[in-house]
Amino acid sequence: MTTTIDILRNAQTTSSYLTLAPEEFQSLYDISYKFVTSGAAARSLPPANLYNVFELQFFLSIIAGKDTEASAILATLTDRFRQDSHRVGVLRSIYLEATEGPLKALEFVSGRPDTELGTLKRKIVILKSSNQTSHYISELLKLVDNFPSDAESWAELASAYAEAGMYAQSLFALHEVLLLVPLAYNINALIGETSLVYASSLQAASSSHSVAIEERLFEAVKFFLRSVELCEDYVRGWAGVLVTTKRIAAIQKPVGDTSTYKRLYDVARNRLAKIVETQDASESELASARLVLKNY
């Protein structure tokens, strides 16, 4: 039989409450609110689990627009776990953003120590939502400098650079991610995609083909192939191989030997066709595969 604690633990660990239908969300809110306010949580849970349940109720209150209840939960957590707790600091920044706006939340997190990963990430989220691109990238650089082993931060930096059209810097950040998670096939594919977009930007800025463009295309194929080596039916990877080798084949006077890439084009096309034929992928992936096969 599923207990109240099981229901709340599952909601907290999976963040499933973010995608619940309104009636399901209200049901979870009622269960959590009753468990927290009745004292049952404090009586039955150790401190670490107790914090998680109170944190869940805080998020549910924020989403439901119940600012007074969220404030009460925050006060309880502050009393139990101290004002200087970095987790409490993150929650306070969320509360301030919800009730007083992003500038107030930004002022609060800016006063927290740079050694707190959670509050640094909150600062970056606020800056991103406020469209302060240069400040956003500057804080991301500070974050990866303080926490160089945080792959998520490097990935966020790569995304920020790519959105700003700074593809060389984006690729550098993605390679840092790959150093931390070398078997991440999706990151290999993302490096391939970024290299492909970088090649397109170089082409748009030049009146003629160049070695630099070829190098970016060759690098894209290399990382797309690595992604399908790690996950052999990865549609995104095979689609990348197909698109990029088609681009390479269209080069009028290539600097390097492109015969291998012509063979890879056939391999990628056959692999995607087989995936579509066997329906061996999700609906969205199959739709992507069909689109790529149609256009390339």
UniProtKB/TrEMBL annotation:
Organism domain of life: Eukaryota
Localization annotation: Endoplasmic reticulum membrane
Transmembrane segments: none
Chain ranges of the EMC2 TPR-like domain: 120-183
Function description: Part of the endoplasmic reticulum membrane protein complex (EMC) that enables the energy-independent insertion into endoplasmic reticulum membranes of newly synthesized membrane proteins.
Oligomeric form and interacting partners: Component of the ER membrane protein complex (EMC).
Coiled-coil segments on the chain, per record: none
InterPro entries according to UniProt: EMC2-like, TPR-like_helical_dom_sf, TPR_EMC2
Entry keyword set: Endoplasmic reticulum, Membrane, Repeat, TPR repeat
Membrane topology qualifier: Peripheral membrane protein
Protein's name in the database: ER membrane protein complex subunit 2
Pfam families the record matches: TPR_EMC2
Family indicated by similarity: Belongs to the EMC2 family.
GO terms under cellular component: EMC complex
